[in-house]
């Protein structure tokens, strides 16, 4: 995406639409249904508006941690994330980090506790969070084992296995971002970009 477009989107005159724009820009692949979940840091003052931004979608969210200025927010589609976490490869991997994965709520509760524990100890995220963000399990495993070094390529995540496949996914994510931003500039809302769904 051209630097000029990004600069315009995040210029001061657009800050009043900050949360909607942030969700669109940072979560486009998720909004377009290419991922089961995504995550973003939201200024605390904006958190209260998240419900309005996501109104009419099937997107749910959970605040994983909060400090004076920022909330770490996890956005997900319940059915998709539940199905993803039931995959054997994912279950087996997360079990190593204390996730019983008996339910989505339990898994997210464990993730939130792990994120908060790491924050209290001034550590970065618990790295298994990459699996929740739909990164390939093998790449997350290698990232942990190699201390975040030795990747063969980097983009939306650090890639250790199958760079050809990752490259195609990165390109698709880039296209989703361009599409979502163009739709936003044409006047569409998050609800419209994500695909309107009537709430039950």
Q: What helical percentage do the residues reach? A: 40-55%
- Estimate the global geometry from the Cα principal axes: globular
Record the strand order, biggest sheet.
1-3-2
Sheet-strand content, in percent, reads: 5-15%
Give me the count of strands: 5
Q: Report low-confidence residues grouped into runs of 5 or more.
A: 12-16
Overall average pLDDT: 88
Can you put this structure into words, describing what you see?
The chain is α+β, with helices and mostly antiparallel strands. The protein has one domain. Helices cover 52% and strands 14% of the residues. The chain has helices spanning 3-9, 18-31, 44-47, 50-53, 78-85, 88-95, 104-120, 129-132, 137-145, 163-185, 190-194, and strands at 37-43, 59-66, 70-77, 153-154, 158-159. The strands form two sheets. Strands 1-3-2 form a three-stranded antiparallel β-sheet, with helices on both faces. It has a two-stranded antiparallel ribbon with strand order 4-5. Mean pLDDT is 88; it is low at 12-16.
């Amino acid at each position: 995406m051209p630097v000029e477009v990004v600069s315009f989107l995040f210029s001061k005159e657009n800050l009043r639409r900050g949360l909607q724009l942030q969700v669109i820009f940072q979560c486009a692949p998720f909004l377009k249904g290419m991922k089961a979940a995504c995550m973003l840091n939201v200024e605390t003052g904006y958190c209260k508006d998240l419900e309005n931004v996501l109104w009419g979608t099937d997107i749910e969210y959970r605040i994983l941690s909060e400090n004076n200025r920022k909330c770490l927010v996890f956005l997900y589609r319940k059915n998709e994330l539940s199905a993803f976490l039931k995959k054997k490869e994912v279950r087996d991997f997360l079990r190593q980090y204390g996730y019983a994965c008996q339910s989505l709520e339990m898994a997210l509760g464990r993730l939130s506790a792990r994120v908060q524990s790491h924050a209290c100890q001034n550590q970065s995220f618990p790295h298994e969070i990459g699996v929740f963000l739909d990164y390939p399990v093998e790449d997350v495993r290698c990232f942990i084992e190699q201390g975040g070094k030795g990747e063969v390529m980097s983009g939306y995540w650090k890639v250790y296995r199958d760079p050809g496949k990752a490259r195609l996914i990165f390109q698709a994510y880039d296209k989703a971002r361009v599409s979502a931003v163009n739709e936003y500039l044409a006047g569409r809302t998050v609800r419209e970009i994500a695909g309107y769904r009537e709430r039950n």
